[in-house]
C-alpha cells in the first residue's frame, strides 16, 4: 500500500490515462466536433431525481444573494445552451461532481466525456458511441438490446406486464431485498432488479448498448414514437460496468419544464432538496436547439477497464479519501 501522500494510481495507469484522453479528443476532433469548456460551478443544475449536486452557499462564491450554487453533475445544461447559440456538434472532457458517491466505481469528483452530435438520431448516436468504445478499448462491435428484452432474458418477466406486487414478490423471492414495502414506486423496483440482476451479466464478451428505457425513466430523452411506453435513451455496458448514458435529446421546452417539476416533486418525496426550476436551459430551448443525440461517458471507468484495474482508485491519482 502506497503512503497516502502519494498517488493511489500506479504511474503506468496515469500514462495510459493521458493516452486515452488524447485518443478521445482525436476521435471527436477528426469528426469536426468542437471541444468546449463550460462552468463546473453554476446557479443552476440539471434536475434529476437520483443525482445530487454538491451545494455551495452564495456567500462562498462572493455573490450577495440567497441562492445556492452547485458543482455540476453534468455539463448538459451549459452545453445545450451552446447548441442554442449555434455552436454545432461539440464535446467536453472534464470534472463533474455528485454528492455522497464513493466506492469501487464512484468518486464524488470524476471525469466525464459528454458530447452532442447535431442532426443525429438515435441510430446515429448508437453508432458514434460504439465507434468510440472500439477506439478506446479495442472492443468488438457492440450488441444492441432493448431494455425490456434484457430484463426478460435475465428474469423471465415481461417488463410492461409487471405490476408493483409482482416486482416486489420477485425481488423478495430472489433475496434482493427483505421487505415488500421497500418502495411504492414501480421504477424503484425495476431499477433494483436491473442493477442487481440484469447489469452484472451485460457485456461479458463485447459491449452491450441497452436501448429504449421505460418512458418513466426518459430523463431528457424523446419518447419513441412507435412505442410511447419507451424512450429513446440508451446506456452502454462492458464487463458488467456501466460506461455511458445517452439520449435522442428532448427539444420541447414545455415537456422539459414538466419533467423538471416532476423530478423535483420526487426529490422532495425522497427527502432530498429541490433544485431551481427557473433554468436558462428552458429559455434557450424556447429559442430553439437543433435535433441532436447526446451522450455522457464515465471516462475514469473506461481507463479502469483499459488498465484491467479493480476500481477507480487505481486510475485516479487522488480519490476523495486522499484528495
* Shape type: globular
Count of helical segments?
10
Structural class call reads: alpha+beta
Q: State the CATH topology.
A: BirA Bifunctional Protein, domain 2
How much beta, percentage-wise?
Answer: 15-25%
The amount of helix comes to 25-40%
Overall domain count = 1
Could you tell me the number of beta strands? 11
Q: What's the SSE pattern?
A: HEEEHEHEEHEHHHEEEHHEH
Give the spatial strand order of the biggest sheet.
1-5-6-11-10-9-8-7
Cα(first) to Cα(last) distance is 16 Å
Radius of gyration: 20 Å
| CATH superfamily caption | Bira Bifunctional Protein, Domain 2
Poorly predicted spans: none
Major pleated sheet:
8 strands, mixed
Using the 3D structure, state the CATH architecture. 2-Layer Sandwich
Amino acid at each position: 500500500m502506497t503512503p497516502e501522500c502519494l498517488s493511489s494510481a500506479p504511474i503506468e495507469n496515469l500514462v495510459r490515462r493521458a493516452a486515452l484522453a488524447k485518443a478521445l479528443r482525436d476521435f471527436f476532433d477528426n469528426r469536426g466536433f468542437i471541444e468546449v469548456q463550460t462552468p463546473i460551478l453554476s446557479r443552476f443544475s440539471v434536475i434529476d431525481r437520483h443525482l445530487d449536486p454538491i451545494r455551495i452557499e452564495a456567500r462562498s462564491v462572493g455573490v450577495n444573494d440567497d441562492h445556492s450554487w452547485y458543482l455540476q453533475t453534468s455539463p448538459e445544461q451549459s452545453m445545450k445552451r451552446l447548441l442554442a447559440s449555434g455552436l454545432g456538434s461539440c464535446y467536453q472532457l472534464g470534472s463533474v461532481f455528485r454528492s455522497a458517491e464513493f466506492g469501487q466505481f464512484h468518486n464524488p469528483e470524476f471525469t466525464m466525456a459528454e458530447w452532442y452530435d447535431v442532426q443525429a438520431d438515435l441510430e446515429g448516436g448508437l453508432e458514434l458511441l460504439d465507434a468510440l468504445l472500439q477506439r478506446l478499448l479495442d472492443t468488438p462491435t457492440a450488441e444492441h438490446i432493448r431494455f425490456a428484452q434484457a430484463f426478460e432474458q435475465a428474469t423471465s418477466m415481461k417488463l410492461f406486464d409487471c405490476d408493483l406486487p409482482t416486482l416486489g414478490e420477485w425481488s423478495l423471492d430472489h433475496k434482493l431485498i427483505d421487505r415488500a414495502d421497500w418502495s411504492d414506486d414501480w421504477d424503484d423496483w425495476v431499477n433494483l432488479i436491473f442493477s442487481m440482476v440484469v447489469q452484472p451479466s451485460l457485456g461479458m464478451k463485447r459491449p452491450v448498448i441497452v436501448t429504449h428505457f421505460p418512458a418513466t425513466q426518459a430523463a431528457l430523452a424523446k419518447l419513441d414514437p412507435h412505442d410511447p411506453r419507451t424512450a429513446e435513451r440508451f446506456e452502454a455496458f462492458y464487463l458488467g460496468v456501466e460506461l455511458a448514458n445517452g439520449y435522442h435529446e428532448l427539444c420541447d421546452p414545455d415537456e422539459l419544464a414538466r419533467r423538471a417539476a416532476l423530478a423535483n416533486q420526487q426529490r422532495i418525496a425522497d427527502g432530498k432538496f429541490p433544485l431551481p426550476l427557473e433554468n436558462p436551459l428552458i429559455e434557450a430551448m424556447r429559442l430553439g436547439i437543433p435535433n441532436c443525440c447526446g451522450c455522457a461517458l464515465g471516462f475514469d471507468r473506461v481507463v479502469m477497464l483499459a488498465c484491467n484495474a479493480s476500481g477507480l482508485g487505481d486510475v485516479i491519482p487522488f480519490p476523495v479519501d486522499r484528495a
